Amino acid sequence: MIAEKMTQAFQWTYNENDQEFSLHGSLRPQRADELSNCISALEQSVSNVSGMFYVNVRRLVRMNNVAFHALGCKILDLVRTRTDLKVHVTTSSVVGWATRKFAVLETMSDKITVSEYDNEFYPGQSFVEDSAFIHVLRTQTKLTWRHEKDLLAKHGLKPGMQVADICCGIGDFAVLLQKEFAPDRLVALDHSRASLDYARRVASDFGVRGIDYVFGDAADMLLEDNQFDFVTCRHSLQVFDRPERILKELFRICKPGGRVYVTNEKNSHCLGEPRGESIQWTYTEVAKLWHHFDMDIEIGPKSRRLLIEGGFEDVSIGSFMVTNTDGNPQDFADVIESWKKLFADTMATQRGDDEAFKEKFAKGFDDHIFAALHPKGYAGWPIWVASGRKPL
Ligand SMILES: C[S@@+](CC[C@H](N)C(=O)[O-])C[C@H]1O[C@@H](n2cnc3c(N)ncnc32)[C@H](O)[C@@H]1O
What we know:
Distance between the termini: 57 Å
Helix content: 40-55%
Shape: globular
Low-confidence stretches: 1-7, 119-123
Number of helices: 12
CATH architecture of the largest domain: 3-Layer(aba) Sandwich
CATH topology of the largest domain: Rossmann fold
GO biological process, one term: methylation
Domain Methyltransferase type: 165-261
GO molecular function, one term: methyltransferase activity
CATH class of the largest domain: Alpha Beta
Strand content: 25-35%
Radius of gyration: 23 Å
Protein name: Class I SAM-dependent methyltransferase
Number of domains: 2
Bound molecules: S-adenosylmethionine
Order of helices and strands: EEEHEHEHEHHEHEHEEHEEHHEHHE
InterPro entries: Methyltransf_11 (IPR013216), SAM-dependent_MTases_sf (IPR029063)
């Protein structure tokens, strides 16, 4: 059973199967008593547990000292009063000092252990690695492929190449590449185990062979230098706070003379008619929301500069617009609906936005859907495609 409770800026979840109590969002109380409901929920969760109890704070994007003290004292109290109990705390480097702080608890009791989920955890990862994101990615690729199929060839992808798709998500793009371009080798790398599991399942269900799905960190890949003729990285430079670091890795694994291909958005340029004003307002807010979490969903037109500054030559950039007139307008409406859930609900809640704001924010997505499904309406989502050659 999963118990869940929400407050304005943070939430907690208890997963009985995993004996894990997780905290999400921004945990910055002024006084300890603001956490009393959360601490009671923790007490209630642990009451039926013996053996290892997991406290997971890795999905917190912010945390202050008041919160650390309240949690730390509760954990110490638990292991001291309950002889049958051990506690493991999982932190992340997003809240930089949390690992250091919680590690002190390890020195105070041998029944407490602490580990950092990942030394290379990025601010946006808490959203994009979530399995809830799978639906967003799936519907997006469905719409972009009709454009990209031709563009990829124009940017130099040919059958029989050695190809890598970095930050491959759920792997549906890799499957399409495999079918359309029959590469000699295709490596698809991501840092989300949920997405990779999904990707492997889809490839096996569809009887698609030859894709090597690997777990890894795009900023520090175990892949060797100068391996691939064509390296793709779609919609992903925008989830990192330092995209140039990822680009450096893409450059490294690309063969001299090979090309790196990136796609990125500029969300504030999403548009629609009728109800253009509300749509425009909402997507401008999306850009601000991503910025809050140290991600840049406006990178699209900046891709040319990033590639040139990354040492690439023969840089080529263009854009295309996914619209409701491309095919079934409902497909586009589905994508917008999945953005609404992620942006106006999950992410806005984690930022601590109030209900009035979230309602207005959500309305712009509803209006975009209205425009997409309106018999005389027009709705668009622009995407920038850029590639550059690694010098010989
Ligand atoms: C916006 S999604 C794009 C996915 C896919 N390229 C697509 O277009 O559908 C960003 C992807 O980057 C992955 N990611 C985030 N941080 C990563 C990292 N450090 N290393 C590898 N992948 C990462 C996420 O798990 C997610 O699948």
